[in-house]
Amino acid sequence: MIIDLRSDTVTKPTPEMLTAIMTAEVGDDVYKEDPTVNVLEKQIADMFGMDQALFFPSGSMANQAAIKLHTQPGEQLIADKYAHVYNYEGGGISFNSGVSCKLIDGYRGMIASDQVEASINPPDFYHSPLTSLVCVENTTNKGGGACYNFEEIVKIRKVCDTYNLGYHLDGARLWNALVANSEKATEYGKVFDTISVCLSKGLGAPMGSVLIGNHKIMQQAIRVRKMLGGGMRQIGYMAAAGLYAVNNNIDRLAEDHRRAKEIGEVLESLSFVSKVEPIDTNIVIFQINDNEEGFITKMEAKGILFYGMGQGKLRFVTHLDYTQEMHTYFLKLLKSLTLK
Ligand SMILES: *Cc1c(COP(=O)(O)O)cnc(C)c1O
C-alpha cells in the first residue's frame, strides 16, 4: 500500500465526481457560454456575498491576476516571508506585474496589523516604491496550515483603508480555515477586495481556482486572465468537478483535520521526534532529532510518501484520498518505528 502524504493536491476524482464531469453541459467559456462555469462562478460569488467570480486554471494564475488588478509596475506589495505568491509562483509578481515585495517576518506565515502598518512606505516619499497592496494567506501553506484569528484580518483591513491599499486573500485552503474555525465565507467577502480559492486541494477537484471580488476590481479580471493565457473553452467539464467538490467535500475537511491531529499526537510520543508544530488544519510539520535520513528511508521502504521542507522540517498532509484504513495502518506503523 502506497500512502501519499506529500500534499492535498494528489487526490484523484471519485466515481461520483467523474459522473459529474461526464454529464456536464458545456459551451465556449471564452464567449462566457459555458453554463456549468457560469453556475460555478455564480455559486461561489454568492457564497462569499461578493459581486463576481471568475474560474481560473490554477491558484497561481488567480493570485497573479489579483496582484495585477491591484497594482501598477514599480509599486510594492506587503506579504509574509513564507507567502505562496512570493515563494512558489515562479517569480510571477515581478514578471507579470513589475511589483516588488516587502516581506514581513510573521508567525507561521501570518502577519499582524502593526507589522503591516510599519511596512508601508510613506506615500509622499518618492524615493521608495509606492505600497499598494497587502496579501495574506489563510490557511498558510509553508506556515503549516495555520489559521488567522479573524480579528487580526479585520485589523489589517483597517490599515488598508487608512493607507488606501488593496487587500487580497490567497485562500487556496480557506475552506480548511472555515471548517476548522466555524467561520462563514460571507465574513471574508465583507473584508477583502479579492479572494482566491482552490478547488484542487482539499476539495479534491483535478484542477481549478476561483477569483472573487466586487464589480469595480473584477471588471478587468477577464482581460488579465486572457493575457495570462487562462481563457479556456469547454472547461465546464472541470467546473463540474469543482461544483461537485464545493457541494460535497467541504464539511468532510474536518476528517482531514482530525487525522492530522492524531498523527501529531503519535509523533509527539516518539522519542526521535524533536518538535511537532501546532496543527490547526490538515498539515503536520515536524522535526527528527538527528537521524532524519534514517527516518525518511524507513518510511519510504514502507510506501509512505512525504516531503522535506528544508531546514530539517518534514511534512505530512492529510486529504480526501487518505482513508481511515490508511490512517489506522499509518498510526500503527509510526508507533512501531525505531530509529537507531
Ligand atoms: C496551492 C496554493 C496556491 C495555488 O497553487 P496552484 O498549484 O497554482 O493551484 C496558492 N496559494 C497557496 C497558499 C497554495 O497552497
Concise summary:
The protein is an alpha/beta fold and 340 residues long. It contains 15 helices and 13 strands.
Would you kindly provide a written description of the structure presented here, covering whatever features stand out?
The protein has 340 residues and is of the alpha/beta class. It has 2 domains: 91 residues, Aspartate Aminotransferase, domain 1 (Alpha-Beta Complex), CATH 3.90.1150; 234 residues, Type I PLP-dependent aspartate aminotransferase-like (Major domain) (Aspartate Aminotransferase, domain 2, 3-Layer(aba) Sandwich), CATH 3.40.640. Helix content is 42%, strand content 17%. It is built from 15 helices and 13 strands. The strands form 3 sheets. The chain has a 7-stranded mixed β-sheet, sandwiched between helices. Strands 9-10-13-12 form a 4-stranded antiparallel β-sheet, covered by helices on one side. Strands 1-11 form a two-stranded parallel ribbon. A hairpin with a 6-residue loop joins strand 9 and strand 10. The chain starts with a strand and ends with a helix. The model has no long low-confidence stretch (mean pLDDT 97). It binds pyridoxal-5'-phosphate. Pyridoxal-5'-phosphate binds next to helix 3.
Structure characteristics:
2 domains, alpha/beta, binds pyridoxal-5'-phosphate, Aspartate Aminotransferase, domain 2, Aspartate Aminotransferase, domain 1, seven-stranded mixed sheet, 340 residues
